[in-house]
Amino acid sequence: MGISAIAGVLATVAVTPAIALTGLAANNSIGMFENLPGYLKIGDLPERTTIYAHRAVDGADTNTPIASFFAENRESVAWDQVSQFAKDAAIAAEDPATTSTAASTRSASRARRFPTCSAATCRARPRSPSST
């Protein structure tokens, strides 16, 4: 009976630091999430910067681009300037029907409307009001 008690005490002493560290890590993780802001402000994306040379030609001022630099070659466009194919692709990427392994009627109808083809030859078939 004495050896069992000593073994129990040793097991408790061996496990206690692991349990304490687990609790401490959980508390720190909860505190990190509690300190997050309630909203995220999304600013403007960085775009390409162009450097111009200014010169006068026959009395007219002209600006000639001499260099462009960028981290990512972005150009902001209005929503109506975005290709309908890009809009449909973004929606299809988020649609669970297009990512499931089982073929569904919805994804099959989308595949018929938007066949795989090159950008130069691809034309979307017009959508009927009943197909969604």
Describe the structure.
This protein has 4 helices and 2 strands; from the N terminus they run αββααα. It has 132 residues and is an alpha+beta fold. It has 3 domains: 1-38; 45-76, no CATH class; 79-113, no CATH class. A two-stranded antiparallel sheet has the order 1-2. A hairpin with a 2-residue loop joins strand 1 and strand 2 (60-69). The radius of gyration is 31 Å and the shape is elongated. The N and C termini lie far apart (74 Å). Residues 93-112 are annotated as: Disordered. Residues 93-108 have a biased composition (Low complexity).
Number of alpha- plus pi-helical segments: 4
What's the N-to-C terminus distance?
74 Å
The helix/strand class is: alpha+beta
Strand percentage, roughly?
Answer: 5-15%
Mean pLDDT: 76
